[in-house]
């Protein structure tokens, strides 16, 4: 509860609460140094958001220590394809409970496909079948909207939202199929907040949403190579499990980045963009700054010295 109420994680205050007001001098000094490093990143992240011609929110948290960075964490943003994180979760939950099977086959029909999905459109002559697992892969890797809509109809939009609510996420909602422009015009957007999407991924990572086998499958799918702002920004060696999203004037990305000792969850959302490429670059800047921070922590002593493995 302490962590959720703070807009910015304060290291000295947290340590003082945990261990009392009196600390050894050396430990107290280490806290001050780390706090200064934390504040530096917070300033850098804020500068990226401030210079963006649009609105940016983010929630970034170390899954080991709880150290976090926030901007507009409880503001509702359109999710675009990042909402597919919730659809995938419900698909795997229903497979876990035996309500469906990932090996279940579905005939692809052209009438179910939407604009911009040429692969399923070409396959949709009624003679090709794909498993639900195959469709999930299309949804995650290619962000295929036709595959997504087929999965929404199979698991049920109401079931997706019920599971979201069960996880305690009040502002995260799947309100429409992909590419349903009429629903979008009526304001039925798929939405979440930086904090809630962060918490969804945290709970999935901690095994609080699925059993061990389905948790592993959830992140195996999200770790498949894809085009995303996080992948564009981070080293090829980085282990990234994410799902980006893009709509007119909207760009976002949410995922978990595995760094030994300091894995972290990161959600970055932008809207009201005057230039979508600028929004993509801003998300990449945030991702690079956060990755460098936690990577340096992972390689450093408590005093900040990076000790070579040689």
Tell me about this structure.
This protein is of the alpha+beta class. It has 13 helices and nine strands. The strands form three sheets. A five-stranded antiparallel β-sheet has the order 2-1-9-8-7, sandwiched between helices. It has a two-stranded antiparallel ribbon with strand order 3-6. It has a two-stranded antiparallel ribbon with strand order 4-5. α3 packs antiparallel against α13, α4 crosses α7 and α4 packs across α8. The longest helix has 27 residues. It is globular, with a radius of gyration of 21 Å. The relative contact order is 0.16. The N terminus is likely disordered.
- Side-by-side strand order of the widest sheet: 2-1-9-8-7
Show unreliable segments: 1-10, 15-23
Secondary-structure class = alpha+beta
The major sheet is characterized as:
5 strands, antiparallel
Helix run count: 13
Sequence of secondary-structure elements: HHHEEEHEHEHHHHEHHHEEEH
User: What's the average pLDDT?
Assistant: 91
CA-to-CA gap between the ends? 42 Å
Q: Care to count the β-strands?
A: 9
Helix content: 40-55%
Cα radius of gyration in angstroms: 21 Å
Shape: globular
């Amino acid at each position: 509860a302490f962590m959720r109420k703070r807009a910015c994680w304060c290291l000295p205050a947290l340590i003082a609460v945990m261990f009392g007001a009196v600390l050894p001098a050396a430990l107290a000094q280490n806290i001050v140094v780390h706090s200064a490093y934390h504040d530096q990143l917070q300033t850098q992240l804020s500068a990226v958001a401030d210079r963006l011609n649009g609105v940016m929110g983010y929630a970034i948290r170390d899954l080991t220590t709880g150290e976090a960075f926030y901007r507009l964490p409880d503001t509702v943003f359109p999710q675009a394809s990042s909402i597919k994180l919730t659809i995938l979760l419900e698909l795997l939950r229903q497979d876990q409970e035996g309500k469906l099977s990932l090996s279940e086959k579905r005939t692809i029909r052209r009438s179910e496909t939407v604009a911009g999905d040429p692969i399923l459109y070409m396959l949709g002559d009624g003679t090709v079948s794909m498993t639900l697992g195959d469709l999930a892969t299309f949804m995650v890797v290619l962000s295929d909207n036709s595959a997504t809509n087929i999965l929404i109809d199979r698991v049920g939009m109401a079931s997706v939202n019920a599971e979201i609510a069960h996880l305690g996420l009040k502002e995260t909602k799947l309100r429409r199929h992909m590419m349903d422009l009429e629903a979008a015009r009526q304001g039925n957007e798929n939405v979440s907040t930086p904090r809630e999407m962060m918490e969804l991924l945290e709970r999935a990572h901690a095994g609080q949403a699925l059993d061990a086998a389905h948790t592993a499958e959830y992140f195996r799918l999200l770790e498949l190579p894809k085009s995303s702002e996080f992948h564009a920004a981070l080293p090829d060696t980085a282990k990234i499990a994410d799902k980006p999203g893009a709509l007119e004037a909207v760009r976002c990305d949410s995922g978990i980045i595995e760094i030994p000792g300091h894995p972290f969850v990161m959600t970055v959302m932008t809207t009201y963009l005057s230039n979508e490429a600028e929004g993509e670059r801003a998300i990449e800047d945030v991702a690079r700054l956060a990755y460098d921070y936690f990577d340096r922590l992972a390689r450093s002593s408590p005093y900040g010295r990076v000790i070579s493995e040689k």
